[in-house]
From TrEMBL:
Residues 170-242 are annotated as: Disordered. It comes from the Eukaryota. Residues 180-193 have a biased composition (Low complexity). This is Peptidylprolyl isomerase. TPR repeats lie at residues 106-139. Keywords: Phosphoprotein, Repeat, TPR repeat. Residues 200-212 have a biased composition (Polar residues). InterPro entries: FKBP4/5/8-like, TPR-like_helical_dom_sf, TPR_2, TPR_rpt. Pfam families: TPR_1, TPR_2.
Length: 242
């Protein structure tokens, strides 16, 4: 049973590779996707009748190794097709799933680095490509991508510096405008007006000065009702209660 599934999955992998080389990425994805249908549901163990409630079919260690490689090819090759078609988020997801099976898979790491670089995640791309070079120091593609990444880092730093410089210029201009507005809002004779309403008293026994604040005169329109002319006094009888 497992051998038949593995054979069919290998056939689909070859079909997908042929379509990919021909530039038929959608057809290649169809073939790669079907690989998983044939290798899903197996687990390493003795080839014995399944236990009640068992959800996977046991296979030998050699068969499990083949199944693992086919699952890895399924995810990694799907990621490459998605990259070719510009589906970066899906490509990244498939790369990460491949790396869950094999964290040191060079192809999946390199392709995930491409995904990160495509969306501007430069630090993540750098980490993936450096991991590739740790396992394969002569990997020309990773070396080339890292060299290109250096220029992108330099360009990014220049843009950030310009952005922050412009931000500081705006803040400085705003502070200058606020200071000029505050100065314009202050009446020019405010101090003179306050001085005219102060009375200074000097002490004869010392040099201490006491300042008494006298309220300013009321405005002409705030004098209240005018006082009427005096009225003559007319006495009246007052009757007290009996």
């Amino acid at each position: 049973m497992a051998a038949d599934h593995i054979a069919k999955a290998l056939q689909l992998k070859d079909e997908g590779n042929a379509h990919f080389k021909a530039g038929e990425y959608v057809a290649a994805m169809t073939a790669y996707h079907q690989i998983f249908l044939y290798v899903h549901g197996f687990s390493e163990g003795a080839a014995s009748p399944a236990f009640p409630g068992q959800t996977t079919r046991p296979v030998s260690a050699a068969e499990m190794a083949q199944i693992r490689e086919l699952k890895l090819a399924h995810f990694s090759n799907l990621a490459l097709c998605h990259l070719k078609l510009g589906n970066v988020p899906k490509a990244k997801v498939n790369c990460s799933k491949a790396l869950q099976i094999d964290p040191k898979n060079v192809k999946a790491l390199f392709r995930r680095g491409k995904c990160h670089a495509a969306v501007g995640a430069l630090d993540e791309a750098k980490a993936d490509w450096e991991a590739v070079l740790q396992m394969d120091p002569q990997n020309k593609e990773a070396i080339r991508e890292l060299q290109a990444l250096k220029s992108r880092f330099a360009s990014h730093r220049k843009k950030e510096q310009k952005k922050f410089a412009g931000m500081f210029d705006k803040l400085s201009d705003g502070q200058d405008e606020g200071a000029s507005d505050s100065a314009a809002a202050t009446p020019p004779d405010a101090s003179d007006s306050a001085a005219r309403h102060q009375v200074h008293i000097s002490s004869e026994e010392g040099n201490a000065n006491v300042t008494i604040q006298r309220p300013p005169p009321a405005a002409e329109d705030d004098l209240g009702e005018p006082i009427s002319s005096p009225q003559p006094f007319e006495p009246q009888d007052v009757t007290f209660g009996q």
